[in-house]
């Protein structure tokens, strides 16, 4: 889950889409790769009480499962701490520095069907590690003008990683977040994105087969409230727009990836 | 203007507060220190047509004024390009790498009364350069739970820079952005922040005399629309909530800094 534009709904989507997929019976692991550790906070995990976190997984190195925390049935979180901010500098000189996470994920058979990685708002080494370790990229996008600006450089980075490091990498989909669909701006930006993606069809780009999900996540204050209770929208507001939207997105996502 | 949390209104505040201060007769320079170059885009500056940008100012080195673009009377922007992303790696080994921007600003008498620097959503080298070069820090904050989480590490970073590199550095103020003041969440978070800042009074911290501005910037779609017209809210929607809020913030800001 990546987009270098800040505050577009990356963490909120990893947490709530992850919970909705887990609720549908998939065994899901959420990886917090952001030193801000917002995903870790979202599930009420106290960073100070952790013996292991993503920093140890990347640098010690420790197996991913040794840092994993089960938060709900079928749903596990691998937490982050602020130490992760140092990882970028510490890994900068390593051989194949973009592939450290990939190595970790390959070391052992992970007991999860799905792994969702929450990235920081940058295209730095942590995000490159995520892009090198996975096969599908999800792009959360707030339908605002400034958020649209960065899409080009994000796609270029995906293409570079696919060409040089991780050939199977492709953009699985784009999901609109924090939508105020009554506004002209949102409709214009969404139309722009849909058109851009339609024109890329069949042209052999890593995003040529990307799905622009029909489900748009509406702006809904309960989605911003639930992290303060350390839980997801499915528990905090099961009948809210937020829950309906993420359940509907989970169905579309599972179909797009051919799950079950 | 800094906050490592993404999407909290940093760029929007630099652009519109800057314009409101310029409108009030102050000579203002806005510096884009984010490789996403959203501030540059906000003023309709085409990054591809630039001879010089902040990358050159930091690395060539070139004087700040050689890259400056006048966008309105009293208002100048020093643009960024994506190249700035490379500056972090290129400067990483330099002696006193946090003080490159400070050196540039000291080289010549700048013809501006005020300089506002827009930072990327991180506490990396570009943000450290901004914190080392200025005397006051403004913290834009969306009154959401996740946005509150990062305030601690941001203040710690300010304290470290003040202790080791830039002793006069202090937090001038906190401004609430994208406020939905009818929500319980916003009121709770704002009360938390006001209390935290009140308790720090007189304790000799760089934020002990910080003002939590009375003016809260309300969520207003026109603020998200104006960048697509390459202008600020003062031109695009002069009678909107967005314009009123930023004009009122400019008055409070000028008073807090003792301008005029
Ligand atoms: N659909 C929504 N409706 C209302 N608020 C939302 C919604 N989605 C996210 N939020 C809130 O908006 C803010 C930004 O979302 P979030 O933190 O998930 O974005 P992000 O892309 O992960 O940010 P960062 O770039 O800092 O990692 C958070 O405070 C979150 O609680
Ligand atoms: N008061 C507001 N009302 C409505 N939309 C706003 C408001 N302030 C900012 N926005 C919009 O919200 C988004 C985030 O704001 P902005 O880009 O200024 O934040 P930022 O902190 O600079 O983000 P980044 O961390 O990516 O640099 C933008 O699309 C902007 O147009
Ligand atoms: Mg996040
Ligand atoms: Mg910005």
List keywords for this structure.
3-stranded parallel beta sheet, alpha/beta, 13% strand, 4-stranded mixed beta sheet, homodimer, 12 helices, binds magnesium ion, globular, 260 residues, binds adenosine-5'-triphosphate
Mean pLDDT of chain A: 96
Sum up the overall morphology of chain A in one term: globular
Fraction of residues in β-strands of chain A:
5-15%
Count helical runs of chain A. 12
Give the strand order, joined by hyphens, for the main sheet of chain A.
2-3-1-4
Instruction: Write out the distinct hetero groups bound to the structure.
Output: adenosine-5'-triphosphate, magnesium ion
Query: Which secondary-structure class do the elements of chain A indicate?
Result: alpha/beta
Ranges of chain A with pLDDT <50 over ≥5 residues? Answer: none
Amino-to-carboxy terminus distance of chain A: 21 Å
Helical content of chain A stands at 40-55%
Instruction: Let me know the largest β-sheet of chain A.
Output: 4 strands, mixed
* Number of beta strands of chain A: 7
Largest interface: A-B, 36 and 36 residues
* Rounded radius of gyration of chain A (Å): 17 Å
Quaternary organisation: homodimer
Could you spell the SSE succession of chain A in H and E letters?
Answer: HEHHEEHHEHEHHEHEHHH
